[in-house]
Amino acid sequence: MPTRAAAAAEAAWSPLDFEQEVTRSSENRRFSRDGVRTSYATLGGSGAADVVRLGPDVLLSVINCVLPRMARWHYDPDEALIMLRASLSCSVAFRARGAAPLVFNRPEVTLVCQPAGVPLTVDISGGTRQQGIVAVFRASTFAARYGLVPDDLPPMMHDALAGKGAVGRIASFPMDHRIAALVADTIDTRLEGELRVVQYAGRLAELVAYTLDAMHHTPLLRGTGGGHALQRRRDVELAHAAMARLERDYRRPPRFADLAREIGTNQNKLKAVFKEAFGITMADYCLERRMREAQQLLLEATLTIAQVAERVGYEHQSSFTAAFRGHVGMSPREYRQHRAPFSVALGKG
To answer: What does the alpha-carbon distance between residue 65 and residue 77 come to, in Å, rounded to a whole number?
Structure first.
């Protein structure tokens, strides 16, 4: 006879259905009236994930866990939804009927459209750290929830909020230090009960504001219409080709002139389209990506600081320490002492 968790895994429900989330696993425990926590330590993994209902139109997940094995969840939304993801680390694939899979496997902020009546399967990898904030909104009430009107929103969101968008990304971009800090501090909160829910709601509002601001100020994310559509599409392709290469080799990135030749453009052009597409320079992206990995390694506390430096591409610990202090505001040793206790406790479930 299937267990409650197994039966829940096979069922399909709306991503906004909090009560179904409550019964997903036998390890779920309510920590507030509208919050449930799943501990994965007793299931063979580590860490925990919180799911919170913020009214009838938003379901928020705050995640810092490792699943013992791949999990597959099925959803069948009967209304248009918007999903906002801000991930520090993840390995998740979304599969919707008639659309190419959406894969999330790197630190980024992503806004996704999910139209009504399109079943969705979510595959979450086991043995991999899943760490971030995921919010699902009812599309029809998203703007009103934050007191916004259509003119306050990026044009690319209008169709999705009206329920007319196709399945897929509305926008995605690398995390900057503000959003990374917001996500990390939210994951590490020491508040409990209803106060944790209050904090989560405030942090989500801040994340929404940062995301909309980034979309407003990133021209290539505002569409490719007009007489220069083909040229702008080419620019987007160049930017994403460079991002793919840097994501793979950010620890020891190629010379930007060599990267430009590799993907068929010149260095000045590549720098310009990358900054326009993602709101960050290639050099700053590589630095942020290295520092984010360094932070995670420092929190796991299994490597020395010299080993962390080498892992993220620094030959000398002193150079790593200077870069880390300039980016994070404290030394690697201070960061580990300041942050590790909370993460270790969470990791034990």
So the answer is: 26
